[in-house]
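Teaching assistant here, posting this on the class forum so everyone can see the example we discussed in section. The complex has two components, and the goal was to see what a joint structure prediction looks like when all of them are supplied at once.
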Amino acid sequence: DVKVTQSSRYLVKRTGEKVFLECVQDMDHENMFWYRQDPGLGLRLIYFSYDVKMKEKGDIPEGYSVSREKKERFSLILESASTNQTSMYLCASSHERGFTGELFFGEGSRLTVL
Amino acid sequence: DAKTTQPPSMDCAEGRAANLPCNHSTISGNEYVYWYRQIHSQGPQYIIHGLKNNETNEMASLIITEDRKSSTLILPHATLRDTAVYYCIVRTLMDSNYQLIWGAGTKLIIKP
């Protein structure tokens, strides 16, 4: 079975801190994604990557950056965390490009920024 | 904005079929309908997807109307573990890239 592992289930950070959220997948998938999920808003795409060292902006990239140095690892970075970035963050991977196939999600990282 | 409309919540008795409706009246001819579900405190899980024809797998059946303006996800024998938020999503072409635009979903509660 595909496994997508997110490094932390729960984090509490202070305003202005730099935050790293790590995601690793074990199925050699080309495509990886970062979403945030807020009540009543569904999932919103932050960034995605179709290949190593490649990244594309999603719907809400402001305040975030990403890094994909290895195929299996996709990191989300909050350079200076703010309270409005308090959210659930979900990482996903897929084999097919262009959202044509199944997305496999991690269990999520719940970030609280104080 | 999401291209789908779903009821915010539904109940179903354990052992009965759960039928979850979804409206997607503005869907285009080449846009697929996807269904995912999210059990509390977990990431979303893929269920099924389709374009025109009805689809069935080990988890569920997807019935798409002939005009493609709506669809129904059917869980044939619901169990308590099927309690989750179910998302109906249209895969949409935006800025030369396909995307999944997620709505708020339907909270399905299976009652004993």
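For the discussion questions: DSSP finds no helices and ten strands in chain B. The mean pLDDT of chain B is 92. Think about how each of these relates to the inputs above.
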